Amino acid sequence: MASGVAVATDRRPTATQTVDRGLQLEADNTLSSRYNGQARVSVTVFNRKVLLTGEAANDNVKQQVDQYVRGLPNARVVVNELEVASSPSFMTQTQDTYLTSAVKTQLMTAEGVPSNSIKVTTDKGVVYLLGIVTTAEGDRATEVARNTSGVAKVVKAFDYVSEADARAWTRPPPRRTRRRTALSVRRHRCSRCRAWAGRSMRRPAHRPVRPPPTALSRLPSLRP
Questions:
Q1: pLDDT tens across 207-217, in order?
Q2: CA 70/CA 31 separation, integer angstroms
Q3: Separation CA 148–CA 142 (nearest Å)
């Protein structure tokens, strides 16, 4: 199984992205150590939706994995696609990695597809699509993945939003203007009128007078 997602312009909030990374790390580490030799489970998380792909030795192991993941506090939805079968060959897993890269490349070049907000994972020739999309965007992404050479099947696990929400994500953020405060203005005092002035204020009409030299400045230099 192979997976990947672009980070830029991700429609998930930053906090949700952090939760997804922690959730996937926790599930991966626990399942790999607890069911070593009994199951090959690949965990994919997007927007707190957990996708389980791979193989389990029997139905009992499959059910145990499902119960554990559903019990995680940050798991919002669990999509269990585990199969009771033996693990695939190395060539099959290599082909899955190639298909994931090929589908991602096709999505990046497709028009009207928010590829940066779609996660792609492949298991035994079956491509799974997760992400935050509109209905039209999801249909276009599915069609692009289905037409990629070598893909046997496409499974959609999207979270759908309205067209208005999608336009709000693509709208550029408002420009922030920096306000000048009293602390950011370098101020000085005129030597004649003793009035305070700053960079943001008009300079006094007269030319500032330098202070008189001190007694030390009148001493001859001690340099040879």
A1: 555 555 655 55
A2: 13
A3: 10
